[in-house]
């Protein structure tokens, strides 16, 4: 049986060991922002937050008040595609009800 490793002259392994990072890049996330205005009724905003962001009435009321007082709030964080869909749904719904409510997204 041939079990011996062949003799080497030391010139076989001349390469540099390179550490390759396991690159599992997560997709970027986007914040969906709701903006305050002087005309959209508070109850409409609460309804939007319940309907499109899955908030309870109490959560929605709290977030609506934050936007009302501070001018803007993050109402959710999503993938680019989901964030775009949410923004579109809110803007569409507001326009159909003739409210000036604004919803935007920005990279986290
Ligand atoms: N400021 C509005 C009002 O007093 C209420 C409001 C809250 C509007 C949040 C928009 O994103 C908003 N009727």
UniProtKB/TrEMBL annotation:
Domain Adaptor protein ClpS core as annotated: residue spans: 25-104
Record bears the keyword Protease: yes
UniProt GO BP: protein catabolic process; proteolysis
Domain of life (superkingdom): Bacteria
Disordered: annotated segments: 1-20
Keywords: Hydrolase, Protease
InterPro entries to which the protein is assigned, alphabetical: ClpS (IPR022935), ClpS_core (IPR003769), Ribosomal_bL12_C/ClpS-like (IPR014719)
Keyword GTP-binding among record annotations: no
Annotated Pfam families: ClpS
Molecular function per GO: peptidase activity
Family the entry assigns: Belongs to the ClpS family.
Known role: Involved in the modulation of the specificity of the ClpAP-mediated ATP-dependent protein degradation.
Assembly notes: Binds to the N-terminal domain of the chaperone ClpA.
Protein name: ATP-dependent Clp protease adapter protein ClpS
């Amino acid at each position: 049986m041939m079990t011996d490793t062949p003799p080497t002259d030391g010139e076989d392994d001349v390469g540099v060991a390179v550490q390759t990072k396991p690159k599992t890049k997560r997709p970027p996330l986007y914040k969906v922002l709701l903006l305050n205005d002087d005309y959209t009724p508070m109850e409409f905003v609460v309804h939007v937050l319940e309907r499109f962001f899955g908030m309870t009435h109490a959560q929605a009321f709290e977030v609506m008040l934050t936007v009302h007082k501070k001018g803007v709030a993050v109402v959710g964080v999503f993938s680019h595609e989901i964030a775009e869909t949410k923004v579109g749904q809110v803007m569409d719904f507001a326009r159909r009800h003739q409210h000036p409510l604004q919803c935007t997204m920005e990279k986290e």
